[in-house]
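Thread title: Can someone regenerate the structure for this chain?

I was given the following input by a collaborator and told the matching structure tokens would be attached. They weren't. Posting the sequence so someone can regenerate them.
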Amino acid sequence: MTPAPGVSDAGDAEPLHAPASPSVDAPGLRVVPPPVFHPISPAGLAAFCERVGYGFTDPKLLGQALTHRSWCAENAGYLSNERLEFLGDSVLGMVVTDDLYALLPDAGEGQLSRMRAAVVCSAALAEMAAELSLGQVLLLGKGEQQSGGRERPSILADAMEAVIGAVYLDGGLTPAAELVSRLVAPRLVDAGAPDHKSRLHELAASDPVRTVVFRITEQGPEHDKTFHAQVILDGTPLGVGVGRSKKQAEQAAARDTWARLDREMGELPAREEATNG
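Best answer:
Regenerated them for you:
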């Protein structure tokens, strides 16, 4: 089976685990297993680190963050990313809470909680992972890989948290917070705001004749992409939007579409949004 991008045969990979020396465990000699070679190519790891914007001092941590438990079940001597996922979840929540607290000094607890939930949920984390092409460098068991594990949102979300945890252990809170803030910042703009995209889909669903399509283009390198979206409503190009993620660009385009509809056709007045604080 052809390896995924960034993944090579174990024999061609660089070691991510330092060689271990035998140790004595009374009453006899305990033989320490030979070093494990991590089958993610150095080039694949380097490209991923560039997209993340962080270089690891201890690459073993990155290797562990990219190792799913299904790989560990089929290959002895590896550590899964589950412990790092647990740590990264806490770091993520703390950093987002701090950012929201500073960004919205007048917001109440309820609003802050809803906004935090919107940007740290599994769906948002999976989007962040997809933006970093994290699935390309994951180590998955054969069954998980063949069933589409590299695109599975739950696996991507868990691995994204594990990468955050690995950055925290390797470099401390500052680089981990910078990574989280960079990934989350575009989402905070729309968190708690009216969901214009959903409203457009509701409009199309209400009439079988109506259609809504989002046309997406992207520019820039992998680690610094800009997305452009245009709404095609009933075959007619309408709103446009730009964002650091597809979701942000689509929301911006949907918002622009509703503004055009209100202004040019007076067709659909804006729905009143709840403002519970």
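Strands lie at 23-25, 28-30, 212-219, 226-233, 236-243.
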